[in-house]
Design a protein that fits this description.
alpha/beta, 7 helices, elongated, disordered N terminus, Leu-rich_rpt, repeat, LRR_extensin-like_regulator, signal
Length: 431
């Protein structure tokens, strides 16, 4: 497969489906920084790239601030060329007759101001990753329809030699554009046999349908799309926006694909959904600092892979389920941080009490009798007197966890506290 990217270390991308045919669009109006000539369809290698050009120019016309003069490179017909169209990356799928197409858009830290994303990212049918953390993008999240694209993580054979204190003679680098590292190069003193395990700690094959929507630290508003779960996302980072409404039940469809999801510091409301507990492959679930309410569903005992679970600063209540706390115990327990502070929980079980002592579970500022650092009784009574509409989990109900959650639990690594920067989505918050 031929690789056409501006970054010299982009790893090869392979399309798993035929490239969707793009709809012809009218060329955009020129603005003050438009190119001196207007490319025509015959100037582009294929129809997909002409379609991308039209979409990019139309979006460019809406941008009101560009401190790094990024859009000055969005001129001409060479969308995939070296040094042109910064932030856009192209690859050729491996199918016979496939065309060069845009599969990754990376605006991280560009500081671009734009009033909406609709009509932009939803117009790239082969887009697998859109990363635009720390910009000033507004509007709601568009409904996306993208083709399934398979990405193969590649470790180069021609490792460069270098000297290290531990006398390991080679420095091995994982060259990743989408899987796990989002364009970074991870290097370390690891042997070829263990480099993937050391640097990429995701269960299953190193070949995966990797897709990411990373839009933290913007000004997005409105509800999460009801069909959010019908694209097999691996990474969702929507933290620090102004998103409202419930977490859609369609998120359950991501139970076999989603590894990390950040929804913290928005204005999400409604009952904490049962479907969130079906994400048995997720290592990170962070929905802290919202307005979610209800008890923790029994399905949360199915989160066999979770390492970081933050539901703090919401309006949750009831008992903290012991079945959830048991995810941090035993040889297969991976849960290293369970944050439930700033809610209205009234009791914890035996397993949860042990986690409080170990510093794994944070339940400060709740309504649990006998524990220090809780809310004032009057504040708890006022909350308890309010009507409750969320379904209470039945004490005797049997939870039907995804089959992979039960069969794969024994193979999981035991609990290990990690730096937040080791997680893809948390790392993007600080870029």
């Amino acid at each position: 497969m031929e690789n056409h990217g501006k970054h010299p270390l982009l790893f090869l991308l392979c399309a798993a489906a035929v490239v969707a045919k793009s709809t012809q669009l009218e060329p955009p109006n020129r603005n003050s920084y438009a190119p001196s000539y207007n490319p025509q369809p015959h100037d582009f290698p294929n129809e997909q790239l002409y379609h991308a050009y039209v979409v990019i120019q139309r979006f460019k016309n809406t941008i009101s601030c560009d401190p790094g003069k990024i859009t000055a490179t969005w001129i001409g017909h060479d969308i995939c060329g070296e040094g042109s169209y910064r932030g856009f990356y192209c690859t050729t799928p491996s199918k016979d007759g496939a065309n060069l197409t845009v599969t990754t858009i990376d605006f991280n830290g560009f500081g671009l101001c734009a009033p909406k994303l609709k009509g932009f990212i939803d117009q790239f049918p082969d887009l697998a990753v859109f990363q635009a953390t720390s910009n000033n993008l507004s509007g709601d999240i568009p409904r996306l329809r993208v083709n399934p694209v398979v990405y193969s993580l590649q470790v180069k054979d021609d490792f460069k030699s270098s000297k290290f204190d531990n006398n390991i003679p080679e420095k091995h680098c994982i060259y990743g554009r989408v899987n796990f590292v989002m364009g970074k190069i991870f290097c370390g003193t690891y042997s070829p046999d263990d480099v993937l395990q050391k640097m990429v700690e995701i269960p299953g094959s190193v070949v995966t349908d990797a897709k990411g929507l990373l839009l933290s630290n913007n000004k997005l508003f409105g509800a999460l799309p009801a069909d959010l779960g019908f694209i097999k996302w691996n990474y969702l980072a929507l933290a620090n926006n102004k998103l409202t409404g419930p977490i859609p039940s369609s998120i359950a469809h991501l139970q076999d694909s989603l590894f990390e999801v950040l929804l913290l510091n928005n204005q999400l409301s409604g009952c904490l959904p049962h479907e969130l507990g079906m994400l048995h492959k997720a290592t990170v679930i962070d929905a802290g600092k919202n307005q979610l309410t209800g008890p923790i569903p029994a399905s949360f005992s199915c989160l066999a892979s979770v390492e970081q679970l933050n539901l703090g600063e919401n309006r949750l209540y009831g008992q903290v389920p012991d079945a959830l706390c048991k995810l941090a115990t035993g040889p297969a327990g991976r849960l290293a941080n369970l944050t439930l502070s700033g809610n209205y929980f009234t009791s914890v079980g035996q397993a949860c009490a042990a986690l409080i002592k170990d510093g794994v579970l944070d339940v400060k500022n709740n309504c649990i009798p006998g524990l220090a650092g809780q809310r004032k009784p009057a504040e708890c009574a006022a909350f308890q007197s309010q009507p409750k509409t969320c379904p209470a989990p039945a004490a005797s109900a049997q939870v039907a966890c995804p089959a992979a959650a039960a069969t794969g639990a024994a193979a999981l690594a035991e609990r290990k506290v990690k730096e937040y920067s080791s997680y893809v989505t948390y790392a993007t918050l600080h870029e």
